[in-house]
């Protein structure tokens, strides 16, 4: 079967949108599955719907990568967006033609090509996703390296090349999963400017003529299809071989923190895709953490004890889904500062995302590090609800009890892999910070009253003594006893 390229695509009879030639307007550090299913998809739709007429150049950020595959396929790849919308199964196919080529700066001449692109008058944007470890200041990165070691150092050289060519600055859209990713990236660039003793005029140009945007990305990308039979069937149906075939969930939102006017410069609003420029990304990060991540952490430990193993199955159970929805709509959303319709719509999308028929999200995988997750994702909503309502939120309180039950269910041993507990006849191993696991193992023989008191007063866990919240200790003890006596599902049902 012929490898995908423009000629082969035309011969396959594909009827969708394709753009073969256009100016290279985007330099993208990162060529992995996520960016291709997210950013490059949005630029592809912008080419079709908004007349963006721009191509993305994919720069390989580390020595090993996909550059050869990208160039062998002339930048083309097939993307499947899969999931559930309002309970309906969605499986959308689109051939992405927004990418022109890949550059490997570690190959002979590759770094020179990156710097040549930096001097292009067509270039408008830089996008990056170099993993959480990518935005760091590396004192071992030097100006003369080809290329410099770190991504911020590479970007500094790219910007310097552009500055020396007398060109306008760029909008830099950082997609790494750290807080204030754009601000952190700018700080690293400024450190390199100082360390390399580059001229003050360049530093002023970097900080005044370029826009470093912190962004929030939200799309689950399962990536490549692992089943060789499914991949073979898709290639056969498409009429070509695609070594870059990619998969993402249907839901996707990109929140970009930027100044007034940036939304008009970007092509996304006109294209009608869910990319939004806002003055502050913080409330949207809070929305994601409290609603999406908070839902997971809020129901997963109890749902596992109730006998469930996959998130999707939980969405088909009236009690588990009802518990999650009551927690979201009655206890979490009222504490958030964004528009309530926006919050309700986002929460509604969560059910669809959790019901994705193409993704088997294992509850045990989600349960990793539940101690720190409950503190970061659920405790802020809990505390704000108590402050505003002067009462305990029933579902969030139950979720705390379920977390404790999950970590104390017939504890058997503590080994190198984690804390071994059991659900009926099935053993399960909890992964968390070692100190948390050692705490629960030390308290494995406690009465419910003693265990709850020890947990709630553990300031290493919560940063405060939670027994000072009126009525909380007694309620968590009662909820824990109910879970152990009647089962987690009955306990969940009792609060909805």
How is this structure best described in words?
It is built from 23 helices and 14 strands. Helices cover 48% and strands 16% of the residues. It is globular and about 70 Å long. The model has no long low-confidence stretch (mean pLDDT 96). The strands form three sheets. The chain has an eight-stranded mixed beta sheet with strand order 5-2-1-6-7-8-10-11, with helices on both faces. It has a three-stranded mixed beta sheet with strand order 4-3-9. A three-stranded antiparallel beta sheet has the order 12-13-14, with helices on one face. It folds into two domains: 6-279, 3-Layer(aba) Sandwich (Rossmann fold), CATH 3.40.50; 283-494, N-(1-d-carboxylethyl)-l-norvaline Dehydrogenase, domain 2, CATH 1.10.1040.10. It has 496 residues and is α/β, with parallel strands linked by helices.
Question: What's the gist of this structure?
Answer:
This protein is α/β, with parallel strands linked by helices.
CATH superfamily of the largest domain: NAD(P)-binding Rossmann-like Domain
Counting DSSP E segments of at least 2 residues, the number of strands comes to 14
Helix/strand structural class:
alpha/beta
CATH C-level of the largest domain: Alpha Beta
CATH architecture of the largest domain: 3-Layer(aba) Sandwich
Strands in their spatial order, largest beta sheet? 5-2-1-6-7-8-10-11
The CATH topology of the largest domain turns out to be: Rossmann fold
- As a whole number of angstroms, the C-alpha radius of gyration is 25 Å
Q: Which consecutive residue ranges, at least 5 long each, have pLDDT under 50?
A: none
Number of helices: 23
- The portion of residues assigned to helices is 40-55%
| pLDDT averaged over residues | 96
Strand content: 15-25%
Distance between the termini: 56 Å
Q: Give the total of domains.
A: 2
User: How many strands, which pairing sense, and closed or not: the largest β-sheet?
Assistant: 8 strands, mixed
Shape: globular
């Amino acid at each position: 079967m012929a490898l995908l390229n423009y000629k082969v695509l035309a011969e396959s009879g594909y009827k969708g949108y394709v753009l073969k030639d256009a100016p290279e307007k985007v330099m993208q550090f990162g060529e992995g599955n996520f960016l291709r299913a997210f950013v490059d998809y949005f630029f592809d739709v912008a080419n079709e719907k908004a007349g963006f007429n721009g191509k993305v150049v994919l720069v390989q950020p580390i020595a090993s990568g996909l550059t050869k595959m990208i160039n062998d396929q002339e930048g083309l790849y097939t993307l499947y967006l899969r999931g559930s919308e309002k309970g309906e199964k969605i499986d959308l196919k689109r051939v992405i033609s927004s990418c022109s080529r890949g550059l490997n700066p570690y190959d002979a001449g590759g770094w020179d090509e990156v710097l040549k692109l930096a001097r292009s008058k067509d270039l408008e944007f830089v996008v990056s996703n170099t993993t959480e470890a990518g935005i760091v200041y590396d004192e071992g990165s030097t100006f003369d390296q080809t290329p410099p070691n770190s991504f911020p150092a590479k970007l500094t050289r790219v910007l310097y090349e552009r500055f020396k060519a007398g060109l306008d600055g760029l909008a830099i859209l950082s997609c790494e999963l750290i807080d204030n990713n754009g601000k952190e990236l700018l700080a690293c660039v400024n450190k390199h400017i100082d360390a390399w003793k580059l001229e003050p005029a360049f530093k002023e140009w970097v900080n005044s003529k370029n826009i470093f945007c912190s962004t929030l990305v939200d799309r689950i990308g399962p990536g490549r299809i692992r089943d060789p039979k499914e991949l073979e069937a898709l290639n056969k149906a498409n009429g070509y071989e695609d070594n870059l075939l990619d998969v993402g969930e249907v839901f996707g939102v990109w929140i970009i923190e930027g100044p007034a006017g940036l939304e008009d410069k970007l092509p996304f609003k006109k294209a009608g895709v869910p990319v939004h420029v806002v003055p502050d990304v913080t409330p949207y990060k809070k929305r994601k953490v409290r609603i999406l991540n908070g839902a997971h952490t809020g129901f997963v430990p109890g749902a596992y004890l109730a006998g469930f193993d996959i998130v999707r199955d939980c969405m088909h159970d009236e009690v588990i889904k009802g518990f999650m929805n009551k927690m979201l709509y009655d206890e979490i959303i009222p504490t958030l500062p964004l528009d309530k319709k926006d919050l309700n719509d986002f929460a509604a999308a969560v059910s669809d995302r959790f019901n994705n028929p193409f993704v088997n999200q294992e509850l045990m995988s989600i349960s990793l590090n539940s101690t720190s997750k409950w503190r970061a994702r659920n405790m802020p909503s809990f505390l704000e609800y108590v402050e505003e309502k002067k009462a305990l939120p029933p579902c969030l309180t139950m979720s705390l009890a379920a977390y404790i039950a999950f970590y104390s269910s017939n504890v058997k041993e503590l080994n190198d892999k984690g804390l071994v507990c059991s659900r009926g006849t099935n053993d399960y191993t909890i992964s968390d910070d070692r100190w948390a696991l050692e705490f629960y193992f030390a308290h494995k023989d406690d009465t419910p009253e003693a265990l709850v008191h020890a947990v709630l007063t553990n300031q290493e866990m919560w940063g405060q003594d939670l027994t000072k919240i009126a009525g909380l200790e007694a309620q968590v003890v009662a909820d824990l006893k109910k879970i152990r006596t009647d089962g987690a599902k009955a306990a969940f049902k009792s609060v909805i």
